[in-house]
Input
Amino acid sequence: GTWRQRCLVLSMPHLQASGGDKEADNVRVAVRCRPLNPDEVKDGRGVVVSVDQLRGEVTVQVDKARTSGERRRTFTFDTVFGFEATQAELYNETARPIVDFVLEGYNGTIFAYGQTGTGKTYTMLGERSVPEKRGIILNSFAHIFGHIAKCEGEVQFLVRVSYLELYNEEVRDLLSKSKARLEVRERADVGVYVKDLSSFVVKNADEMDKLMSIGNKNRKFAVTDMNDRSSRSHVIFTTTVECCETGPDNQPHVRMGKLHLVDLAGSERQSKSGTTGEQFRETVKINLSLTMLGNVISALVDGRSTHIPYRNSLLTRLLQDSLGGNSKTVMIANIGPADYNCEETLNTLRYANRAKSIQNKAHINEDPKDAMLKEFQLQILELRQRLEEGGWGF
Output
């Protein structure tokens, strides 16, 4: 059978590709509501969010004092997760199908969005030292190398990773000692890319984990009134999986999938987060780039826009393929349940509701120009020939 039949089992049938070279499918949107945090419990905050997992519904009790309109707003999404949802449930429902597609040669993007302090970094990273609290990024490592182990002998694989941070509208390489600002470029054959971003070949999940830990030490965090470990930057952890197998023409063919795992900095109101000075300037930049992201989402779904403003911010340029392009994409909107965040929660849900209508056109990346596996194979062949010519053999 084909490589797809041998090695790919999708856990969600409604996510399966329809077989054509380019399938149009919508961005999938999941919502996760965290429980009240200790400060909210101490302050006696009320819960205004309810989650119906079976129906895929999130309902918000609207503050009576602020609106003369409806008292309850209900939104429907592909999947919703309440207070009790585990990291494993979230991974299996939202990330597993995307990673399976990447292993097949598609591009995939998973990104967490929401107000500051709603659990985006917990969703994406989680707690490394507690296996059941590990987030999507860590769980994807075991998933990728588990799949490779099952295919051993049939297909050759090459896995590499990169990790970047977008801080104050500047791109930095989190895996490099250099703090130099990197440039975002675009080429017709490979699309949008970051010039001089380092990329490391990895042989197992532990090596991926180590690289991510190095990157995390270089990330920008700060204490604010809303969050005692607030991400001050957007980060993108990219895993590129190349696989090579012999096609019906008896020639080797490379497929390359890229998995972008995105932890966005949270939107925040200065009056609530209490940021001043440098942190206030960070807040302005964070909110501006998230507004630009919202503008791109709106332009993609309104049906009338001829121009999509990807170039208005570095964040939207980096996510250009993920939104409306060559990618299978899941957005995880993170919200809090407390009454004093009612307005921000509604804003997040409206944002996520719009994103459901974005149509992407993903295709398998076969024999791409920037694949490294063939290059390595040619180098090995060349070395073997040299050794044989020298009369050493193996």
About this structure: Residues 277-301 form the longest helix (25 residues). The chain is about 30% helix and 25% strand.
